[in-house]
Amino acid sequence: MTDEQRMQILDKHVSALSEIYDAVQVVGTFLSSDGKSRSQKRGSGNWYARRGLCQEFIEQSQAEDIAIQIADKLEPPEDWKG
Hints:
The chain is of the alpha+beta class. The chain contains 2 helices and 2 strands; from the N terminus they run αββα.
């Protein structure tokens, strides 16, 4: 698939999503023919809202990963019925 074909697909779906959402940001990665990882992205709507969405996505994922790591180290209370 060419870069232009990928961008046409992104444009089509971002356009459809922007009809029902105020802000949309779509990011995709793929391996190029030279074996390198590349990305393409498209967005619609308020740039600051899109940036905030991406930042929240990253921060929430990091927080969940940290919570899981902490939970794995904690001993359950003696009266825990799990």
